[in-house]
Amino acid sequence: QWAAPRLGGAGGWGRARHSSQAWPCHCPRPSLSGELEGIRGAGTWKSERVIASRQGPHLRLAGEHGGILNFCANNYLGLSSHPEVIRAGVWTLEQFGAGLSSVRFICGTQSIHKDLEEKISRFHQREDAILYASCFDANAGIFEALLTPEDAVLSDELNHASIIDGIRLCKANKYRYRHMDMQDLEAKLQDAQKHRLRLVATDGAFSMDGDIAPLKEICRLAEKYEALVFIDECHATGFLGPNGRGTDELLGVMDKVTIVNSTLGKALGGAAGGYTTGPKPLIDLLRQRSRPYLFSNSLPPAVVGCASKALDLLMESNAIAQSMAAKTQRFRSKMTAAGFTISGQDHPICPVMLGDARLAAVMADDMLSRGIYVIGFSYPVVPKGKARIRVQISAVHSDEDIDRCVEAFTEVGRKHGALP
Length: 420
Fold this sequence. Notes:
alpha/beta, four-stranded antiparallel β-sheet
């Protein structure tokens, strides 16, 4: 009879991992220890709280008896634990197995992968789509495959790390324009006229600030200077726009954005996976040249099944996506009325701006003691002097959940001097 593997405890992996005997003799322990101490000393050490329940608006942390309200997940539509999504994942697991043990072009493509790619392209109203293990991989794989040393890429300075890393991998000429500054972008586009192809790359919605890229203006400049537009929609797909298709739908420029990269790991089920959708010749090129696609195992069947069901739910009704606006407005208006400064533009990412890094950390800890799970962010994740607590609203938060969060913020803010 099969038994669950033991992952720790006496005699298990846990003891060996923490023993000094586990370090190979050639491992540079002193330099690593110094590096780790430097991270702790800078106040940027990232601790991981262990969750002992499903993802959702109400969580239970390991070792804690009471439940907490979760306001820091990317579970925008609440589909991570949706019963239909879970059932679809279980069915797909039973029908198609745990995994493919292969990359796509050898023996790693099942009918469910092709079906999901078709569904993604239909949802975004594009010609084709290609799946990746994550959107980080999708961003790592597109610029190198598409751009040559004769080309140019123009990137917003606050783009996600995966876009930055993907651009570093390509040989194109690189321009960085000031955050959402259209005058600076136009100047850079003028300078880039000497290159064969120009690609403007931007997040659709920026994850640290909750602001939305001015896509109308970007597309107007791209048309004027004959450039292509690429957007990363990880914090937009599923809930921005009338049908949740993202910032290009929200701002009415779906026909002007050439390439959309996004994730299955946030609003669309929350498991894993990413994709690129756009013109079919581009997708065909990525299947031939994109290294993260060519050298990574296929997306696991259960993940494919969950994401496919999430898209079905979205395309059947826009009710879930539309519910986000009222909940977001409720939180933002009540927090502003309480005296807090909330960054961004009507996005469910609601950064509570505090300025001081220590204040953000202490307030986040105090919020947890009141049963509200939020995270403080400070330098180098955000600029110095721009520390904040990032709150994320989900469609499955109730009005009572939101009001309780605001009340806790008000109490903690007054206690620590963030409010009068």
